[in-house]
Amino acid sequence: MTVDLSTHSIISTKVYEGHGFPMFTNDEQVQAMELPFNYAPFIESVKKRGLNLCEVVCSTFSVGWFGQPHTNGTANLYARPLQGITLEVDLDEMSIVGYSDRAMLPLPKAEGTEYRASKLNPPFTPKFQGIAFHQPHGPAFHIHAHTVSWGNWEFHVGFDVRAGPIISLASIYDVEKQEYRRVLYRGMVSEMFVPYMEPTEEWYYLSFFDSGEFGLGQCASSLQPLTDCPQNAAFIDAFYAASDGTPLHIPNAFCIFEKYAGDVMWRHTETAIPDQLITEVRPDVSLVVRMVSTVGNYDYIIDWEFKPSGSIKLGVGLTGILEVKGGTYTHTDQIKDEIYGTLIADNTIGVYHDHFLTYYLDLDIDGEANSFVKTNLETTRVTDHSSPRKSYWKLVSETAKTEADARINLGRGSKPGELLVVNPNKKTKLGNNVGYRIFPGSLSHSLLAKNDYPQIRAAFTNYDVWVTPYNRSQKWAGGLYADRSRGDDTLAVWNLRNREIENKDIVVWYTVGFHHVPSQEDFPVMPTLSAGFELRPTNFFESNPVLKVKPPTYIISSNITPKLKTSTLAVTGALLSHSVRINQHVLGLDIAMDDLGLTLFMQVNSWNVNSLKLIPMALALRNFFLLIRTLSIAFIPFEEKLFRAFTNGILFLAHLEVVASKGIKLEIRIIKHLQLEVQKRRLLYTVINQGDVHMAFSPQIAFTLQGSSTIVHTLVHLLPFRAPFLFKTWPGSIVFVGELKLCHTTRGVVSIITKLPSSCMEAELAASPLCIEKAVVPFGYATTRWPSELSWISEFGSTGGFWYQTRVLSGILANHIPTR
Questions:
Q1: Which domains does the chain have, with CATH numbers?
Q2: Among this protein's residues, is 210 annotated catalytic?
Q3: Which of 225, 540, 640, 679 is most enclosed, with most CB atoms within 10 A?
Q4: Considering only CA atoms, which of 461, 392, 188, 149 is closest in space to residue 287?
Q5: Which listed residue (210, 303, 362, 366) is catalytic?
Q6: Which is catalytic among the residues 240, 298, 359, 804?
Q7: pLDDT tens figures, 156-203
Q8: 679: exposed, middle or buried (C-beta count within 10 Å: 0-12, 13-18, 19+)?
Q9: Sequence-ordered strand ranges (E) for 429-558
Q10: Could you confirm whether 298 is annotated as catalytic?
Q11: What's the predicted TM-score (pTM) here?
């Protein structure tokens, strides 16, 4: 049935008469799994194995097609199969139509199969230190609806119940041309084929089509902040229609984050110029779109990674739990016959199997009309004695005219050195066709016989690369209806038409493959196994597109161990009529919190720094006592640099910029903006960093009420993504106790709206100002007179997924205000 949503009308209805069935729904699978528990033969089989029904879980498997005529104690449940029991369910009638209890083998032990952290027992491996990717100015990407903009990239993130993530309209900004240029119209995982290598009765039919039968989107897992995705990630939910038409919600189905793993985007050191050493380096930061699909026992981590260079890396990670079978063996010496797998635990065999993911890539390289070019590397002999060399290789290019010309099996004696999709109608200034190159990744091929029934249905894995003309009805490599299909509506069948593909709107199909030979390290839960491939611009730009990428702002973390010679710091400054001078021998700086607020130290790496520019932002008001304490000890490893300081060596630093002699620029921003405005209402605005706040502001707010004194000590140690916090008390004084509730923001930005009982503005910005009446000073103390009774902040609120709630007790008295 085809429905026009704009007119709310049915356009057409058609009954499919071919082979195959639609994707299983979750409702069907749940109902089928409940049937055995009311089926007498199954209950009897469970009892004779010494088990109770409450100890048994049933799983659903597709039965495939094998030439027959059509007929109508641990969380690790996969690790303990009841080998030999099989039930066949008719999903239309929702009834059991077949049952077999062929053999009773020893039940694998539960011991050693648990993977939940709370259930594991010592000894444990050494603990790793936490790793954070710090972005003091906030993420560099923006999400509007489902359109993502980042650096020079713009693309749309879509969700499909079958394919999972769909990336569409991916375009890259060309600085030279001053325009966005299209690269990819649509990309997705079209099908995933997972055949097991066990031909016995209970296993022969295990040859899954995870996309077409179960749905990568339908099986999408809600991603866990800080574990599935880093702290700087933003999240997007997904929705799809259930079997009854009601919308189902998948929270955090996608995460989007900037990734930096210490890699280098480009670099060069030049030593040939006399008396000069030139080094230029740019870090390789990329943007990742991630979804995890849990199809039964396996978890598939599907990543699309966009790089400033114009490359797109498509990757998949395999983890989760092996599909195992029971056996009588506890040692490999006992094995005399073929077991079709690896003995990975007592009475437990991990069965050999494959994973093949076929990607659908509708590339529009600078336009729809594209061609597929195979460039072979061929050895040429030097026979005319014109050179001491005897041979060299050269390129021999061939443009595929038809679909048959573009079928390629990589690594099987094939010659192609390069696979290119080019736009023959667009050229660079030097005359090269603009294009993108396919860099192959994992090169595992299906080893099943071509006439084996699973391989007939999965004939799209016969080749690693296919190219077809665009056809809106041909998106699913295994056919529109994959369940129990017979291989008569697959990519391999369409390709037999041998249509023309030169200078056409074409689609590239690329298959990533794994041969999985299980090992003991894969049990009880397997470490992630990853593979993928890359799309990389080739003569698409006039020159290196990241040549003019500005060096980023470097943030020196507290865990860097500096290797610096001791140097002298001269700190000079004044507050009112007082001046101080401090000399310190130093090695580095760190970041810490204490009872007085934020204490900042900065570690600087062993760069040869020859200049320092400091912009301090320490403030004092004549009518208030104000002390701002940040750098209690000024650990800056540079000689004779001028700082502004307050009494007792107290100094505030908002911006530090270091330019090194080797061209390295270090810029540290602690707070993006701090401004104290003396107006009629004396408002303090503190704008927090636009980004993940690792050490947020910690104002210690003191003021006096008319007729009484009150000290309020707030947010001593505010860290995002953790809740709740119990507020601390001021030493020697009675202060309020409040409650703070934190939830992560989808943008990784601390957004605060402060509601006050009177006359104070409500703020709404990405990094919102905190507005508090009267003389309220972060990082220190202040006193003033309150014009009326205290009715302080009763609620913090926020947009963007961040929520604060603070309850404050009014009129709490203190006998004095601490002074320094």
A1: 18-119 (3.10.450.40), 146-538 (2.70.98.20), 567-669 (no CATH), 672-820 (no CATH)
A2: yes
A3: 540
A4: 149
A5: 210
A6: 298
A7: 999 999 999 999 999 999 999 999 999 999 999 999 999 999 998 888
A8: exposed
A9: 433-439, 465-469, 504-516, 526-538
A10: yes
A11: 0.63
